[in-house]
Write a structure and sequence with these properties.
The complex is a heterodimer. By secondary structure, chain A is α+β, with helices and mostly antiparallel strands. Chain A has a single domain, classed as Heat Shock Protein 90 (2-Layer Sandwich), CATH 3.30.565.10. Chain A has five helices and five strands; from the N terminus they run E-H-H-E-E-H-H-H-E-E. Chain A has helices at about 25-35, 40-60, 90, 100-105, 115-120, and strands at about 5-15, 60-70, 75-80, 125-130, 135-140. Chain A has a five-stranded antiparallel beta sheet, covered by helices on one side. The longest helix of chain A is centred in the middle third of the chain and has 21 residues, at about 40-60. Chain B has a single domain (about 5-110), classed as HprK N-terminal domain-like (Udp-n-acetylmuramoylalanyl-d-glutamate--2,6- Diaminopimelate Ligase, Chain: A, domain 1). Chain B is α/β, with parallel strands linked by helices. The longest helix of chain B has 14 residues, at about 100-110. Classes of the chains: A alpha+beta, B alpha/beta. Chains A and B meet through helix 1, helix 2 and helix 5 of A and helix 2 and helix 3 of B.
């Protein structure tokens, strides 16, 4: 680990803009690899980031993804202006999805996004207000 | 084995980034669900899918996949190929089904 202070970055995400899906993930992966962070952590961080990006692009009007690379952990926060989630427990169930058919045809919307994000985080927090938006905060520890 | 070996043995058509054919292939993954590929594919895998849209490129890039084979005579979209060139991802196509493609690749990887 070479950092002694926070390295941070942010990405704006626009609903429906599939063209840029994965850009934040690829960027963060490069950054973490440059910092010499171990491959398994990089893998988990890039999965989390990609799924977070896709969720905003599928469901929200717009959103922000921010990351903070600290000496002890990586924090990824994604905040959107979207429809919100009525039943978070249900949304967290693997296989549950409200995605429309055309999204499913693209191979997204299989109800794996939020579970994948949780599975690859050491800490996972989700807050949602129907009609306002959803915020997900995830932490991956760098010390084990 | 290298990507080039699979291209020759399975008569695949190379659609993007032919410079990537020297890449080593260490495994394979067959799925059309992108979250599944994100979660479960491994670096160096060759990915077998019938998805043709541009998000397959970012998934392959972020996972460090060796290349993508689009099966069933489907053609990748132009923006997919442009992105693949830019991100150095080799895309190949075949008229074989996913089943046959996966079976032949599995055999080549495990028994040669």
């Amino acid at each position: 680990m070479v950092t002694n202070q926070a390295i941070e970055g942010s990405f704006q995400l626009i609903g429906g803009n599939f063209e840029n899906a994965g850009n934040a993930s690829i960027h963060l992966k490069q950054k973490l690899t440059e910092l010499g962070i171990k491959e398994d952590v990089v893998r988990r961080a890039s999965i989390i980031t990609f799924e977070a990006e896709i969720n905003v692009i599928i469901y929200a009007a717009a959103g922000w993804l921010r990351y903070y690379i600290m000496p002890q952990y990586i924090k990824i926060i994604v905040e959107d202006m979207g429809p919100g989630i009525e039943d978070i427990a249900l949304a967290m169930q693997e296989g549950y999805s409200t995605a429309p058919e055309w999204i499913r045809e693209m191979g997204w919307g299989a109800g794996m996004g939020l579970p994948n994000m949780k599975k690859n985080s050491d800490e996972f927090k989700i807050d949602s207000v129907v009609g306002e938006g959803t915020t997900v905060e995830m932490v991956i520890n760098l010390t084990s | 084995m290298k990507l080039l070996d699979f291209v020759k043995l399975l008569s695949l058509d190379v659609k993007s980034y032919s410079d990537g054919l020297q890449q080593d292939v260490t495994g394979g993954y067959a799925s059309d669900l992108l979250s599944d590929v994100l979660a479960n594919s491994k670096k160096g895998d060759i990915w077998i899918t019938l998805q043709t849209h541009q998000n397959i490129v970012a998934v392959a890039n972020v996972k460090g996949l060796a290349g993508i084979i689009i099966v069933g005579r489907k053609e990748p979209q132009k923006d997919t190929l442009d992105k693949a060139e830019a991100e150095k991802i080799t895309i190949m196509t075949t008229s074989m089904s996913a089943f046959e493609t996966a079976g032949r690749i599995y055999q080549l990887l495990k028994f040669t």
